[in-house]
Amino acid sequence: MDALQQRNPITAQERLRDQVAHALRAALIAGELRPGTVYSAPGLAADFGVSATPVREAMLDLAREGLVEPVRNKGFRITEVSERDLDQYTEIRALIEVPMAGRVAGTATREQLEELRPVAQEIVDAARKHDLIGYLEADRRFHLGLLGLTGNHRLVDVVGDLRKRSRLYGLNRLDERDELLPSAEEHLELLDLMLDGDAEGAEACMARHLGHVRSLWARARDEPVEPRPRLRLGAPATAR
To answer: What is the extent of the structural domain holding 107?
Structure first.
């Protein structure tokens, strides 16, 4: 633990909890923590080289996000998402985000749309750098930021909740085949269509993008999973 603190100075228990939570999210994305499996806080703490307390606190944070669920006297189970669930979540998102893309194209100012360009570029840059956590975080900010331009914050809340529930596994395998980059670049394409005031084109692009993402995830889930490597705190959240 002393060596860990020397490499990553921790000034408060809350910071350590956040660091563990970040590492757990990365492990979920990379497939190191498997859906349906129960993990104990002491077991994960041993992997991380920390005490069980910050791990329990971090897992409770993830439970509030719907990523795990407490199992009495055992630990936390990684929540499972079925193919049917994913189809239904994607359908709901399409019902909301496709027409809203057209609306935003016709109502948002050029300045409002241009404010999203750095975020869209972040998505592309993260895909090129194989930064999976950065990719998902920038993707979340772009999609929710776009919906925010409608002025309907309930829509933002609904899609934000759907994104949490439909988080998907196997992202590292897509990254290894460089299949994330084309999906990432669709955000820039969508933004350009909106800036041109092409509502119909924006709707078609959003529909294609959501369908593209869903098909990529389906392929990733069908592939065999490698044995879970030893988790470690402070490891970069990248696939390579």
So the answer is: 83-222
CA distance 45 to 233: 10
Cα separation, 156 vs 193, whole angstroms: 21
The partner residues of 76 in beta bridges, in order of sequence, read: 39, 70
What is this structure's pTM? 0.74
Burial class (CB in 10 A: 0-12, 13-18, 19+), 25: buried
- Together in a domain, 138 and 191: yes
Structural domain count, the chain: 2
Look up residue 216 and give its two tokens.
């990529």
Whether 88 and 101 map to the same domain: the answer is yes
Q: What is the pLDDT of residues 52-89, one digit of tens each?
A: 999 999 999 889 878 899 999 899 998 887 788 888 88
Same domain, 64 and 178: no
